[in-house]
Structures are given as structure tokens and as C-alpha cells.
Design a protein that fits this description.
The chain is mainly alpha-helical. The protein has 9 helices and 3 strands.
Length: 174
């Protein structure tokens, strides 16, 4: 099984290599950082690109505040800063799901073993098995049993970490 933190670091390494080779698409991704706003047009700015910048961008593109936040979440911890956006990729936007800002209200909707509570940034939503299948996850996996179908279930650090690894393994946002 892949390690989600290692996958994030590999993605940042690839971005760094491409940016160092003056790949314009990579440079445009990096210019979202205040320190690198002029990176596309300014050669001196390109010389300041560091791996930490690439880690920050890759983490932000997954809905995290930055790399330290992504590190904590991908290692399975629940974070006050939210859960990122991995559970809501564009290919799943056609599903109708119940959304909540309060986790207790979301938990109240979990009625049977065909529903799952997921997190998106600081919000929660309840999905059916078809949603997980579309994500590339097995709704019958032991991780969901450990979590009681509730992403926010404590304790659940190891199960969440393994599910993030599965998401990356099936091609979660690159």
C-alpha cells in the first residue's frame, strides 16, 4: 500500500523538477504563492524556487492550508483546519449528497451500512456506496468498519491514513 505523505512529496519533487526546467504550467502553479508571484516572467524569482514551495502548492491543490496541515491530515489525524478536498473530486460532482456544517447533524443522517460520512474542508457530507465506488474506494473495506462509516470517528487515525493511501493509489487529485 502506498504512503500518502510519500506520494505528496513525490508530487512536489516532480513539480520542482519541472519548474526548474522552466516548464510554464509548473511555474504558473507556483506563482500562486506570494513569494513567487513573478516566477513566470522573472528569472531571478525562478532561482528562488525551493522544494518547500512545491510542497505548499501541491498541498493547497488538495484543499489543505499548507504542507504541515496536509502532513497531519494524511497521517490520519483530524484537524481543526479541515480535511482537504480529496473526497470531492470533479468526477463526483454529479452526485446528490446531504451537506452539513455540523458533524453531529451529519452523523444523525447515518442510518445504515450503505451510507458514509465524509469530510470536505470544514464541512461534512453523507454519501452512498456508489460515491465511494466512483472514488475508487471499496465501501466494504475494513477501514470503513473501523470508522463505523464515519470519517470523523475517533479513534480512527490508522484507518483514515490507509484510506488516504487508497485514494492516492487510485489516482486521487494529482
Amino acid at each position: 500500500m502506498s504512503d500518502p505523505v510519500r506520494e505528496l512529496k513525490i508530487r512536489a519533487e516532480l513539480l520542482h523538477k519541472r519548474a526548474s526546467a522552466n516548464d510554464e504550467a509548473s511555474l504558473r502553479r507556483l506563482q500562486r504563492l506570494p513569494d513567487l508571484r513573478d516566477v513566470v516572467a522573472d528569472e531571478e524569482a525562478r532561482s528562488r524556487i525551493q522544494r518547500k514551495h512545491c510542497l505548499a502548492i501541491v498541498a493547497r491543490e488538495l484543499g489543505f492550508v499548507g504542507f504541515p496541515h496536509a502532513l497531519r491530515v494524511l497521517e490520519g489525524e483530524l484537524s481543526a483546519e479541515g480535511a482537504g478536498t480529496l473526497f470531492s473530486p470533479p468526477r463526483c460532482h454529479g452526485f446528490l449528497n446531504a451537506w452539513f456544517s455540523d458533524v453531529h447533524e451529519a452523523r444523525a443522517l447515518l442510518m445504515d451500512q450503505t451510507q458514509f460520512l465524509l469530510a470536505y474542508k470544514r464541512h461534512y457530507f453523507v454519501v452512498g456506496t456508489a460515491y465511494l465506488v466512483e472514488l475508487g474506494l471499496d465501501p466494504g473495506a475494513r477501514e470503513w468498519i473501523e470508522l463505523r462509516h464515519d470519517w470523523t470517528h475517533e479513534p480512527g487515525t490508522d484507518a483514515r491514513r490507509r484510506l488516504y493511501a487508497q485514494l492516492f493509489a487510485v489516482g486521487g487529485k494529482s
